[in-house]
Amino acid sequence: MKTLLKLLFFILSISTNAQGIDKSLYAFDFKMEHIPIAERAKLFAKLGYSGTTLRVQSDKQRDILKSYLETKEFSSGKLTIPVVFFGFNFSNNIETQNIMWRRTLAALPQGTAMWVIINGNATKEKTLLLLKTMAQEAQKVNKDIVIYPHDNCFIESAEEAIPYIEEVNEPNLFLTLHLCHEMRAGNGNRLLEVAIKAAPYLKFASISGTNVTMFANDKANWSDAIKPLDQGDYDVSKFVSVLQKIKFKGKTMLHTFGIEDEPKEHLSRSITKWNTMVDSTYKIQNNDLNHILDNPENAYWDSISKSWFISNLGGEKVTLEKDGYGWITRLDENGNIISNRWIEGLDAPTGMASYKNLLYVGDRGVLVEINISTGEIIRKINLPNSEFINDVAASRNGDIYISDTFTNTIYKLPEGGNIEIFVKNDLLEYPNGLWVDKNELIVATWGPMTNRATFETSKKGTLKTINLKTKKISPIGKGLPIANFDGVIKYGPYYYATDWTGGRLLKINKKGDVKEVISGFSQFADLGINPEKGLIMIPEMSKNRFIFFNLKSF
Fold first, then answer.
1. How far is it, in rounded angstroms, from Cα 449 to Cα 429?
2. Which of 173, 444, 526, 554 is paired with 298 by a 20 to 30 Å CA distance?
3. Average per-residue pLDDT for the chain
4. Sheet arrangement for strand 409-413
5. 456-465 pLDDT per residue, tens
6. If residue 74 lies in a helix (H) or strand (E), which one and from where to where?
7. 159 — phi, psi (to 5°)?
8. Does the pLDDT value for residue 154 go beyond 80?
């Protein structure tokens, strides 16, 4: 029998002047001592840079800052200095350094922040006190303090800096994401993960050309991690893509430490590369389905709005973290994108269901209620003691059911009522997909899990029913193990369920007989159905895409 299988890809129109992140670029002024400051300013402006950044620690360096600010380009506001850096070394005289950073803070123009690099005989307690003092002093003059993670210093990476920001808890203490120092920290392959964690605190980023392989610290001269943007064997556009994905709102600096090329030459090449990368990464992420979707977990059809909704876990992996980096993509009935990120700021959204004009989304520890017409989150309903909220299903009378896979629990939100535990029973064998069929709740189970990190099971999952009145749990057919099920729907007399690990769509009758419909895919997630057309949508999680399949043709 013929089947209809269609992969959909999208080409979207975007504004030609859209670019996503701030396209301005600021250059460190390393290796420019031979160029008079007035000429440096002219060079930055001529090449298209928005300004510069420099070390301001000594009286001499404060004079250099002043000279920059007195040039025509900076005094007119055409160029700016968004931040300067100060290295605090706990092995040196503390009293002298406290005097010096306060002088630097006082010398900064409005709008300029102070980076701080922590070095020397530092401890957690001393660093916390220093950052607290700096932040409070800076508040008096309306300035910001920004941690500068630096390789082979006390705080070497963005992740190491986050606990200090959270413990100091001052509103003007921020963080920088440096590509070169994250590469040295071994984070070249996990930049998005790091950036998601750092995003709430990020004020600046710095970029440079870099190699994939770093030298050992005792051999380091920075020629491995800091190059002009058009050099190095690491694809620097990945870093720009990361900034685009987290919607970075700060300023980006071009790191130039140790670069021996003539400044005019390497600065010119780097800004050309930068402009190209900013434009191309934005276009790709708004036109390429593989970038619009990020670990799509559930597809859901809402018949009232005539919309498909796709939940995205985000973060380029299956994640259960409460990181605020999950979203809902909205499509029209033909699969064309209406909004890439219709609802943002979720943690790791999974299953969805709708009732009247409300969309209910399972997220980490909560059920999110969304007004479909306005696209606004109405409330987040706490699901007590939940660990892995998975699918959501709605009955005809408006009762909402939510599966928690790890705790073998089904929650219920009665129409007009409060959340309650509907069923909690090990017989559920790690419930995943849900579907309300008249007076029964159909449950697609994952199978008894032996390793939560890898989702391995002692046996495959099966299909079960729960009577909505008596709460009796029964197997469909003999209840034999079938698959690690993700989603389930019913169409006609048959159940259709996705085998996540096997990449299959299975057709199952009420006797439990199984027939393979399609196979050969990877991580088939939670499917949705437009019952009028018999059209199902299945996200293929690992490929960041989905397929449409017409059940009427099967």
1. 8
2. 554
3. 94
4. 389-394, 400-404, 409-413, 420-424
5. 999 999 999 9
6. helix 72-75
7. -60, -35
8. yes
Nearest partner of 414 among 399, 402, 435, 436, judged by Cα: 399
Instruction: Give CA–CA dist 303/288, Å, rounded.
Output: 27
Q: Which two tokens stand for residue 257?
A: 């430490």
Q: Dihedral sign for Cα 327, 330, 335, 340, please.
A: negative
Q: Which helix (H) or strand (E) holds 39?
A: helix 37-47
Residues 6+ apart with CB under 8 A from 492: 551
496, 509 contact by CB (below 8 A): no
Amino acid at 488: V
Asked whether the beta carbons of 419 and 385 are under 8 A apart, the reply is no
Strand 545-550 to strand 5-7: parallel, antiparallel, or no bridges (unpaired)? Answer: antiparallel
Q: What is the DSSP letter of 58?
A: S
In this structure, what token pair is assigned to residue 533? 């057309």
Report yes or no: 70 and 62 within 8 Å, Cβ to Cβ. no
Model confidence, pTM: 0.91
Q: State residue 355's pLDDT score.
A: 97
Evaluate whether 75 touches 51 at the Cβ level (below 8 Å): no
Distance (Å, whole) CA 347 – CA 327 = 8
Q: What percentage of the chain has pLDDT greater than the value 90?
A: 92
Q: Residue 48: is it exposed, middle or buried by C-beta count within 10 angstroms (0-12/13-18/19+)?
A: middle
Beta-carbon neighbour count of residue 160 at 10 Å?
Answer: 14
Instruction: Tell me the backbone φ, ψ of residue 418, rounded to 5 degrees.
Output: -110, 160
**DSSP character string of 529-549:** EETTTTEEEEEEGGGTEEEEE
Q: Which residues pair with 434 in a beta bridge?
A: 443
**Terminal Cα-to-Cα distance of the chain (whole angstroms):** 6
What is the C-alpha separation between 19 and 285, in angstroms, rounded?
11
* Residue (of 1, 2, 4, 11) closest to 533 by Cα position: 4
Task: Name the CA radius of gyration of the chain, rounded.
Answer: 28
Buried-state track 181-212, b at ≥16 Cβ within 10 A, e below 16: bbbbbebbebbbbbbbbbbebbbbbbbbbbbe
Predicted local confidence at residue 320, as pLDDT: 73
117: DSSP letter:
E
Residue 471 is encoded by which pair of tokens?
């709460």
Three-state SS at 202: strand
How far from chain centre, in Å, is Cα 246? 6
Q: Specify the long-range contacts of residues 339-347, CB closer than 8 Å, at least 24 apart.
A: 339/375, 340/12, 340/286, 340/292, 342/309, 342/375, 343/368, 343/370, 343/375, 343/377, 346/311, 347/321, 347/322, 347/323
What are the tens digits of pLDDT across the range 352-375? 999 999 999 999 999 999 999 999
Rounded to whole angstroms, the Cα distance separating 44 from 52 reads 8
The count of other CB atoms within 10 Å of the CB of residue 368 is: 23
Nearest alpha carbon to residue 181 among 207, 201, 202: 207
